[in-house]
DNA sequence: GGTGGGTGGGAAAGCGCTTGCCAGCTCCCC
DNA sequence: GGGGAGCTGGCAAGCGCTTTCCCACCCACC
């Protein structure tokens, strides 16, 4: 029913082999004359290669897999876009799987991507700190790699994979220092679940910077939650409640380690009539597109989301594939101060 | 190198055919005894089916393609998420292509998805009003359908495809009426490019509702722009400039037919020190997750983005595949009034 | 006890493509 | 002018799976 390479070959009066080489072949060359004839036949017939067949014959598909928590989340959406663009540039399509960070679904997703013989898997935020599954994940990925698959991680997922190093820790530290410079001394920090490596890295950065100034977050001023709006809102509520119950003053600065979280924080503070930044400064992380449109415009740390995705693909697809650590890409993080932060007590 | 079905068959002491039937086969049955043996061997060996090979043999892949403008855009991200979830439930993976609404890239994407023999293509916002390419797109999709492909569209893309009917027009009309009810009479409307069907539908709804009240947008008060933040900002700037130059009063209500656009509108108004909603009410469309966190919280029309994606998949995958119009799904739109709108002149 | 029908296993023919290998040709150099 | 060297075409063997036949077998029934 569909037009096959065979049809094209017959129409052009050449062999199947020649047709194949003319249209996709790389190693061997075909005279321009024949090649042109084949190409002409191909589009006269409206030939469309059969990707699965090619994948089978070459034993490597024309796709790239992306593993992430949720495409609808701006952070991951940005990465997915970058991966998709880079893939398209390489003539590949991208397979996107949203796992909500559920380890079992991640494992499942890796297996499916492997089954589809994707050329590379990009890991963007997986449950890589969850010891209960990390081994299974590693095994699944190892099996994939053994069969020629490439995997690139965005943010550290261990030394086994090429990784796009994201300056999460540095960025968080810089952000914290910026707040310290403004004069803040009472901090609250809202981070993500322990199983998320990114969250841990960012938290480390914050703690380190605080430590440099001889500070440690007081009991209750360090909250762990999911990186969601609701998570941020609830965490902020807890922070205020803890402070009020214990009679301690509110923090003057709240650092939410994800912009989405920070949006929840802002919402909660608004609901409680606590002025930002007058009473409390709030900062996020990621600089998602709408960060600047929040009320007030959110101070945050800018990450080049799409480029991170592109880097990952480039890393995974690069020639040779020798895992040369020097090749790891770096994504820098830049502090962006907007209206949600100010010096404490200036009002 | 990889474990093949043949290996499993040998290990289980059965034929290739039996192994295939035990693991995936449908038509023919295999005795439970053998079947169990095969399954045991399969996971003893860590067998992972080769999807491309299966796709080739069955001449239909285990993937679904999604065509959209930009995964990083919250509107499309939500849809992509829904498609991905529904696909996963059906044991499929989803191939996502961001085309930025460029007709040529859409055509290219359709061809690639076809080449990959995706089981269905979900059209979410394509250049379907652009006559210069609509024919080519239709041809490409027709070719795909002829070979057994299914296509489902989110929002009307013509009668040739199953479609998830989105109440764009009705929602826009309802939103407009809500503003009329508040007392607004001077409107400005910011819509998307003509080639976008959604934009046209929404605009129709607005105009129809205005017409019911005997209103028509004045010259310059109807702006067309891309559905982006910057597009919205620029359009709002033009609206203010036009009004000032012509000495007409500013509109009391601005309807931006996409939330992202509305974010730009709010930013521009803020920059010009025009108070929302005191001086101008602003409304968006889509109810993207962060709409409620904008400043002020955005009034908008809620669309069940993820469910729209799921519907599309269900439509495309349903049994038989008879294109029964009665089967078309409907996605309702609900007006959500928040702080960005108020009665005119109450301040 | 013979025959017809039903059932489950296996051999083998593809699915559409890539690619290793061989054959034929041209070209060049001694 | 003869003989490699170097190209370019074509043949055919897969890639890993599904599926059509065919066959062996078992049961039931006359």
Total E-strand runs of chain A: 12
Query: Per CATH, what is the topology of the largest domain in chain A?
Result: Rossmann fold
| Uncertain residue ranges of chain A | none
Radius of gyration of chain A: 25 Å
Full CATH superfamily name of the largest domain in chain A: Response regulator
Overall 3D form of chain A: elongated
Secondary-structure content class of chain A: alpha/beta
What proportion strand of chain A? 5-15%
Q: Helical amount among residues of chain A, as a percent range?
A: 40-55%
Number of domains of chain A: 3
Instruction: Tell me the distance between the termini of chain A.
Output: 75 Å
CATH architecture descriptor name of the largest domain in chain A: 3-Layer(aba) Sandwich
Assembly state (oligomeric): homodimer
- Biggest interface between chains: A-B, 56 and 56 residues
Number of helices of chain A: 12
Average of pLDDT of chain A = 92
CATH class membership of the largest domain in chain A: Alpha Beta
List keywords for this structure.
homodimer, 347 residues, alpha/beta, Rossmann fold, 3 domains, 6-stranded parallel beta sheet, 4-stranded parallel beta sheet, 12 helices, 12 strands, DNA-binding, HTH lacI-type domain-containing protein (chains A, B), LacI/GalR-like_sensor (chains A, B), Lambda_DNA-bd_dom_sf (chains A, B), transcription cis-regulatory region binding (chains A, B), transcription (chains A, B)
